[in-house]
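Dear colleague,

Following up on yesterday's call, I've attached the two folding results inline so they're easy to grep. Please treat them as preliminary; we haven't cross-checked anything against experimental data yet. The first protein's sequence and structure tokens come first.
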Amino acid sequence: MPADPGGGAGGPAAATADRSHQLDSDTQDLRAVVGSWELDTRTGLVSVSSTAAALLGLRSRLPALTLGGLLDTVGEPDRRRVSATIRAAIAVPTPFTTRFDTAAEPARTVRVVGRPDTAGADLRITGFVEDVTDAVRTGEAMRRSQRLASLGMLAAGIAHDFNNVLTVVTMRADMIRSDALAGESGDVAGDAAAILDAAGRASGLTRQLMLFAGRQDGEPSAVDAAELAARMRPLVDSLRGSQVTVDYDLSPVPPVLADAAQLEQVLVNLALNARDALTDSPPADGSPPHVLIRVGPAHLTGPEDSAVALEVSDNGPGMDAATRDRACDPFFTTKKAGLGNGLGLSVVAGIAERLSGRLDIASRPGGGTTVRVVLPAMAGRPAPGDREAGPCPGVLVVDDDLELRDVHARVLERAGFAVSPAADAAGALERLQVDPAVVAVVYDVLMPGMDGTEFAARALHDHPGVRVLLVTGTSPPSDVLVHPRVGVVGKPGTAWQILAGLRELLDRD
């Protein structure tokens, strides 16, 4: 990639023209996508070459560019982070690399590298600006492609599983109805339990579809990793291929604070990697291709640090030390061209880091591979069912789907709440104006006319005592979640989850 080929373009460069490391000037050759820059910490002035100026959205000739002016070229979402990075490099001279979207339109994505120069009396930071827009877009396209490929691969298995779930639900419900019409009691409890179990399986399949479609990020909550792995077993088994067997070793573990969708992504990515390793190179000793998924207690640093480990092991070809060291690098892959983009382990490592955990890889040529994700366990978290059930003066249930509105109302009425229904936001807001007994609203996030985010903001502003419980099947609206009078429960959910979510919200100070 060509760098700047000539003399300086920023205002401060004129004052330093006699220096041997004067900034290169640029031509307007569109192929030149790397520009140079320099910060004189004594004067606070920045020199930029004309290519760097063009990449940052600056005029090629500037009378004087300050550090503040340079930071103004950074898009607002990234500005504080980039400012902190540069100022830290000034305080403690350290090389740095950062990436951001520019403030100028059309926005470009640039990578900025800086290296302190302490050779002279004054500290200078020199470096280059590189346009990485195309690379970033290519990476995003590859991730979308990977998601689409995964969806295509899952489609048949998920359709099969959904048909199984619906068969259980319809047949069990039909038996309950037949027994009721005949005046017989039948096995209502058993049929209902089977329906609930099937609904839980359907919920897991839905979460996977939303995860792969990039529509569900979720919020951290107490997650039982062993229970999650057991729940995902049908999905993982559908991904393993016809030649690979998968076994499970799931021990009781304390909960971890995590987004369940992220842990599901960890398990799916690791299972796919293990399957692909076995598909590409079967075990050298002739044994059947095998994957073991294990969840159990662990330690992060010492025995006092309780943690949970999720491991996926295979008896495939393994990796040498050089390959193992690069396994988590983005876009690094040992798969054949077109069969992988090298993002699986890098995504898993990123999730582990965000959850304050770590990823370990044990592997050797011919000896298989074990990838282990260790996450800190939660301590002292009360169970949601520990609260005393109590009546509430009034709850407003808002949903444009009549059946959902009715079933939520029935659940809350059975628990002792005084329930009022509404089909839309207008009706809900009108009821709040005239009925001071309503202290909480259960509202579906995806509503026509006014979504959950907008409704919550309006209700919280106009009615300081009201609480809003949002029901959602996608990612919760993060901009209102921080409010103490807003709660979220997932959909599909059970009666217990709705009640627990509402009572927890009403118990908040």
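Below is the second protein, in the same order (sequence, then structure):
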Amino acid sequence: MTQTDLGETPVAPEPDGWEWAVVEVFGHRRHAGRTREEERFGAKLLRIDIPSKGDAATNGWETIYYGGSSIFSFSLSDEETCKRINKPYEPPARLSLPALAVSEANEDDDY
């Protein structure tokens, strides 16, 4: 493949037809996962498989289908970016300071 004018290398689909992408639907919902076009019920649909909790190997996939007219934006991406987008929220409590030990707390109490 050749590079584009912007210096970026185009993303090639995987051998089984999957492409990693970020999809916006109606401009309100955003999904990141592997995508491909499938025909269901006599119509072409976008299938997006979203890795659950950022890790499909452990938690599986969530599959959603959308009709072409409902797609607001379709941006090709890579696997790592899609997994990072789907990573669960980590509360800021993990960054808090540890609690003082009882002996340290008593030393500061000079009444």
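For the second protein, one point worth flagging: The first helix runs from residue 56 to 59.

Best wishes,
A.L.
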